[in-house]
Structures are given as structure tokens and as C-alpha cells.
Amino acid sequence: MKYDSKKIEKKWQLYWEKNGTYRQYQRPKKQYILDMFPYPSGVGLHVGHPKGYIASDVYARLKQLQGYGVIHPMGWDAFGLPAEQYAIKNKVHPSVAVKENITTFKKQLQKIGFTYDWEREINTTDPEYYRWTQWIFLQLWKKGLAYESYDPINWCPSCQTGLSNEDLEQGRCERCGSVVEKRPMRQWVLRITAYADKMLRDLKKLDWPEGVKEAQRNWIGRSEGVEVVFYVANTEEEIRVFTTRLDTIYGCTYVVVAPEHPLVKRLEPRIKNGNEMKEYLAATKRKTDLERTELNKDKTGILLQGIEVIHPFTGERLPIYVADYVLATYGNGAVMGVPAHDERDSAFAKKYGLEIRQSIENMQAAEPGEVFIEDGRLVNSKEFTGLTSAEAREKMVAWLKKEKLGKKVVNYKMREWVFSRQRYWGEPIPLIHCEQCGVVPVPEKDLPVKLPNVKSYEPTGTGESPLAGIAKWVNVKCPVCHGPAKRETNTMPQWAGSCWYYLRFIDPKNTKALVDKKKEKVWIPVDVYVGGDHATRHLIYARFWHKFLYDQGVVSTSEPFSRLEFLGLILAADGRKMSKRWGNVINPDDVIAEFGADAFRIYEMFMGPFEQSIAWNTNGVVGTRRFLEKTWKLQNRITEQELPSKNKNLGNLLHKTIKKVTEDIEAFKFNTAVSSLMILVNEFEKDESVYRDSYRTFLILLAPFAPHITEELWSKLGEKQSIFLAPWPKYNPKLASEETKTIGVQVNGKVRSTIELALDTSEAEAKVLALADAKIKALVNGKKVQKFIYVPGRILNFVLGE
Ligand code: ANZ
Ligand code: ZN
Q1: Could you say which ligand is closest to the alpha carbon of residue 323?
Q2: What is the sign of the dihedral through the CA atoms of 699, 701, 703 and 706?
């Protein structure tokens, strides 16, 4: 009997589908295990894509075997630029391309033997799906969290669309690498900062990798400070600055505003060097935010001649500069310059010969010559002199408040979410512009607003969506006054559909609501979410929408994903990213055709720690295939009775393996779980016979990793039901505990007693346990232990001093 993986895998995949083996939703204990659903690209899956899916599948199978009802769904995130650009290049309509790509993806995934319930399959481009994406948008709009704005936004000249801040990587378009421009245009914006504090606060609740939480904290970038008013002398105008260091204000010797600051325009008639100023503003436009704020870049700016501000505490007149190191989009777009205590201000002041006035003193020894940027004690600060920085900040803000010259404020680095795209392939924004009524929502009964099926959908580049050119679609009657009106023609960004898809999997066919309330309560939050990347995009956006839906009573929890497991990539054998461009892509279909899906699955889990990026190595699959061959052959040695084993290693190994595999899968340590299964098989092999019960247990342990071969061997044991309906084995904790060893306890090199120690006893534990021995205690007590030598399982020695 040969191990014919091809035949076995096909057979069981059909059986599971036909019997609904994984649809145990009625079980009282439930688990929702979710993958970040893919964008179905034109090139299909490479071996890197399924790594996370295999991991979640192993976990989902463990949970089912432990008696849980498990939802483990799959679907497609198919709107957005990649699909549209692929379609333009290949001259097919995006809807056709998406359909074809999904077919390819699905075929590939089905060969791997996942527990996916295809009856729950969703597709973000399906009008029955995006009806609800539009519905959520309308709720946001009704609550004032979606609004129209004309502020300059990031524009990618190559992708020909506006972008959000999250779409940038170091000032460039994340998608195509072009340097983005600032472009003033009409757009729809979501007020994501309304949830900034809640998103920050609730990170504490989440069982997520610390790195991802930290990335979100930094992205949100909460900053507590004070807004201070500086009046412009001889005018009614004021400049508000944002500072986190109010305590340094006696060291403020000038004020700087961003070139885009509205005051610059308003005060133009008074400014004597207007031409110089205009030139400077033009030069700024050509720079990216990154170029402007980088610490090491040469600071530039110009003095505004003819106007001055008044220092709120001293009444002194101070010069005003325009400088591009101040960003218009952060705080108030203006700062108070404190060259003695801020690095940027220091560089600026030195360049322009501005006064540097110390107002904070180091409470420890000062380092001469360096800009002292930390908190300290105030000097040269009138009645505040002598206070600590913290005390001064409180006293000063109280005074400002009393004088109506300032107040405490909180700022966020995170910007509002620019939500409209000037592209075709996205969800239409369900709003109507009426000449009489203004912006009017599409009535809920008229949802979805379907994307018109057109031949030409190339971007216009004018800042208008290609939809704007489709008169038949654009011109509608206003739902309120029935007068002539026009549809909103911008579409939603690629990230809209993925903000809530996990809710739809629970209730994918509901036509009355996006999710049934009872079902939502049962399954949400997602217990384990598996994926990579997206730390500050999808995972922030989805949390924002979820929190909004929570406030609307649509969902019952404040967070969508309880636990997150982040995966490392699979790199190509050459150590580079797998890509068509490098010609180093490996297709899972080929690997499965040669070695089988089970060998492929085990290899991906065995490669190394889950969260690490590791290069592909086909020899590794050869190895896991060999392991399965051994497993297959063991069936010929089965005995109905447990015969005395000659192999003393086998003793408690089965119990230890149950413990290890259970705990390791729970902890996403798949590689060590697999290696313990390999050890067990090697020990089985050393005996002439394998006891049937032991083999049976081993098959269940292996089943989450290699579902097909174990199901086949299981049925060969005469079992009538699927192995995935069997209970997960329990171990005897006594037998599973680590091996102990008797070791001699030495005092000054002489063995004085012996103790039993587990092999994994730590040095500190070993010391305590040794001193618990009466003989040793008597010898050591009162003396100084100069050295304590401990080699687990071998040596324990107290070296005593005089
Ligand atoms: C005076 C001062 C003195 C400052 C000092 C710092 C140190 P975070 O923590 O990132 O919020 N700032 C305010 N608005 C700005 C803008 N639009 N563009 C560039 N810089 C801006 O940083 C807050 C500090 O960044 C503020 O506190 C302000 O400089 C600067 F010894 O005010 B500080
Ligand atoms: Zn681009």
C-alpha cells in the first residue's frame, strides 16, 4: 500500500464538503478564527500567501477537536487600484478580471485542504455586500463623521487619485513609489480622530503583538499641550501656537508660522518684504512634509518685516518668521521659538542670528554647549523662577486661562481619513448633490448605489472621477425635492470593504441588516485574527468603524479582534521577496502536485517560528513528505495489545507530546509542535509494534497539520466518523511532566547529599531546593556562598568562602 497523497487528498476534500464536517456551529462553545482576506491578484497565489491561512487552519482544527463550534471563513477584498490597474493593462473589465482571479485563487486554496465554509464566502465588490458598506458610510455621514472638505490633500500624479496619510510611505505613494503632491480639491473625509482617544485607550485590552500596538500608538500620536495666544502688535489678529513645553516660554524669542498659515495672507498688506515671502511660499510647495521636517535638513525661513507679536507673559515684542519646518497640518500651524531648549529652534536661531535665552536649568550637572531639551528648573522666568518644569506648566496654564490667553489642548499626529478616490473601481459614495437641498443621502431603500458597468473607466487626471462623465448615471432626481440633482462621483478607497467584512461572514446572506444582532452577540469579537502588514491601516480603520458601529448599537463589543497573530513572510530561496519581477515565485500547486498538500502544510508550519521571515527551501518539503511516509508505514505494525516496549524513551513520551502539541498550537508555536510529533514517530519506529491506542492518539495530534493523511489512516483503523469529530486527547499531567533526575549536591566539591530535580529547573529554584535539604542546610548555613555552580541534570555545587 503506497501513500498516494493525490488520491487521498481529493477524496477527503470532497467528503468534508459533502458532509459539512466543519459546520458544527450549534456547539455551545464557539471560536471565530479569521484570516486577513486576500485581494485576488491576477497572478494567483504563491507559496507565501497560504502561510497564515495554514496556521489559522491548524488552530481552527484544534479548536474543533477540542469541542468548539468554529467559524473559519474566506472571502475576497477586490475593490481598489490594483484590480483596476490590472484590468486596464490587460484590457478586461475589472469586474471580469476579479471574477477570473477569484476562480484561480479559490481553486488554489481548495487544494490545500482548509476548513473554510464556502457557503460564507463574501466578495466586497458584490453589490449585495457593498450595499452595507454604503449603509455604514451613510450612518457616519448622519452623525457628522463624514464631511466634505476642500483642504489640500496628497495626490499621486501617477495613480491619479487623492490619497490618505496612511497611503503614504515616507512621503511617497505606497502603491507606486511616486512623490506625492499637495493638491487642493473637493473630497470626502472621515473624522477618524473622533475615536483617537478610545482607540488608544482600548489597546490595553487587546492580546496583540506589542510591536503592532506600539505602531498604532505612534500613528495616533497623542500629544498633550497648551495652545498659547500671541497677539500681533497693532492689529486685531492673533497667532495661536501649540506647545508641549509651556515652561520654556520665557525663553521664547520669536514665533514661526507655517507658510500655509492663513494669517500670512491676511497680513500681506502690512508685510514689507511681500515678494520675498511669495517666492518662499512657492519654494515650499515643491517640498514634501518629510523634507520639511527632517531634523538634519538645513532650516530655511524668512522674517516677516513690518509685523511683530507680543509675548503673553512679558509683553515684549518678538519677530515673526515663516519657516517650512513648521507644518500647517499639525497643531495650529505655528510654534513659539525656544532656541535654548529645542533642537530645531536652536538650528534655526543660529542660522538667522536670533537671540538664545536660557529659561530652564538642568537640575543635575549641565553639559555645556548642548541644547538642554529636558525638564529642569526654571531660570530667568520672573515669578516662575525656581519652579520645576512640571510645576511651572500647571501654574502658567492657569494664568493663561485666567487671562484668556491660552488653554490645555490635545493634538494627534493622526490626520482625518481622506475617504474619496477619483477612480472607477470602488464603492460609489451614496450621496446626491441637489441644487436646492445641498448634499442629500441616498434613501436606504435605494441602496446599493451600483457602480455603472461602463467600457471606459480610465482615470481622468483632472481630479474628477471617471464616473463624472457618465451622464446617465450622474443625473438623478433629488430624493427630497425631486428637482434636478447629481450623484457624488468619487468612490471609496480600497480599505472601505475590509473595515467590516468580519461581521458579514457571520451572516453573509442577511438582506435586512448587515448582521443579525443575535448572531453578532454569539460570534463577535473575532477570537484570533491572523495576518501580516497593515498595522496602521486596515487595523486602525477597522477598529474605528467597529467602535462607531458599537456606538450605534450595531455591534455589542468595543473591539473587533481580541487576539492578533502577526506572521513573518516566506521569502524566495534566494532570500528576496517572492515576485514575478525576480522570477523566483513558487506556486503551491506545483509543490502540492509533487509532495501533497499535507507535506506542504507541515513544511510551512515547520520552517521556523511563525512570526519570522524565512526563505523557502524545497528540500524541507522533501523532509516533511518523508515524515508522512513514516507515519503511513506505521499502520503495518499496529497491535491490539500494548506489548512491553524495549524502547525506554517511549515511556511517557505520548503524554508529553499531547501536552506539547496542545500548548504549542495554542501559542502559535507550530514549528516546535511539529518537531515533537516527529520525535514521537521516530520513537514509535524503534519498536517492532505500535499499540493501536497510541497510534490513534498520535493521528489526532497530527490531524490539524495533516488533515488528509490522518483522516485516511483513521478510517483504516475502522473508525466510522471523521477524525475531526473525535475528542482531542487528554494527557496525564504526572506522566507529561518533565523528566526528573537525581543529582548529587556538593559542598566545596564533595558530594554531601542527593536531590531529585526536573531537568528544566532554573538555577534559582535549584539553589532553594538544595538548601531545603537538611544536611546541606547545616553545612552551608552561616557561611558565605562564594560561588554556586549549577549544570542542569549534572552538577550542583556550593563553593563556600572563609
Ligand atoms: C515650544 C517648545 C519648546 C517646544 C521646547 C518643544 C520644546 P509633539 O510632542 O510632537 O506634539 N510644534 C507644534 N506645532 C508644530 C507644527 N505645526 N510643526 C512643527 N512643530 C510644531 O511636539 C510638540 C512640539 O512641536 C511643540 O512644543 C512645538 O514646539 C512643536 F523646548 O513649543 B514646542
Ligand atoms: Zn501612486
Answers
A1: 1
A2: negative
